[in-house]
Every structure is written in structure tokens, then in C-alpha cells.
């Protein structure tokens, strides 16, 4: 498992989640300034506990001890993936494949660099 760390003071929200494909996209849309958007993507989502939006966000890889706590609280020991902690406690987290982020000048409706995430039927 690789270490992941991301922090931004910008406003992010859960932009899209596809249950069948287990893909999650958090997005900070164009602001002025800066005139960029930031996408945070993870695939293979097995478990998540998220707020719908964040005024500033910090994400880091969880520790082995934190993963053990999540496994015990949510009976999640059989869920594969890496733990990513959002904020400073286990109140917001994602267990998934690798988390990635990308910043670009895409508009509100432009597809993400991580590809199109179709609507869940």
C-alpha cells in the first residue's frame, strides 16, 4: 500500500458515485481565483462514510491501527482496499483502490481526466 496525502482549502463535494462500478469522484469546481478544478478519484470502493461536501479537505492514508478500528466498527475485515481518512478522525473515510487527484482547467460539465462515470441505473 502506498502513502497518500492531499490537502486543499477549497470547497469539495461528492460529485459522483457509481455503485455498480464502485467509483467515487470528489470535485472542487472552477473558482476565481484559482480558475481550476480538482478531481479526487478512487475506484474499487468497498466502504465509505462521507459528508456530501467539505469546506477544505485533508485526506491521508490510514494507519494499520485505524484500519483495525474500522474493521471492528463496521465488520469490514473482508473488504479489500486501502483506508483513506478524510479530516482528523475516522468520522469520514473511504476503503478503496488507490486514490488519485488531478487539477486542470476543465469546465463544470467537462468529463474528468479519470473518465466518464455513468449514472447508476
Characterization of the model:
This protein has 121 residues and is mostly beta strands. It has one domain (5-104). It contains 1 helix and 8 strands; from the N terminus they run E-E-E-E-E-H-E-E-E. Strands 4-7-6-5-1-2-3-8 form an 8-stranded antiparallel beta sheet, with no helix packed on it.
Estimated radius of gyration? 14 Å
Mean pLDDT: 91
Shape: globular
Strand content range: 35-45%
Q: How much helix is in the residues?
A: under 10%
Summarize the entry for a quick read:
The chain has 121 residues and is mainly beta. Helices cover 9% and strands 44% of the residues. The radius of gyration is 14 Å and the shape is globular.
Task: Write a concise keyword list for the protein shown above.
121 residues, mainly beta, 8-stranded antiparallel β-sheet, 8 strands, globular
Architecture blueprint of SSEs:
Elements: E1 5-18, E2 23-28, E3 37-42, E4 47-49, E5 53-61, H1 64-74, E6 82-86, E7 93-96, E8 99-104
Antiparallel strand pairs: 1-2, 1-5, 2-3, 3-8, 4-7, 5-6, 6-7
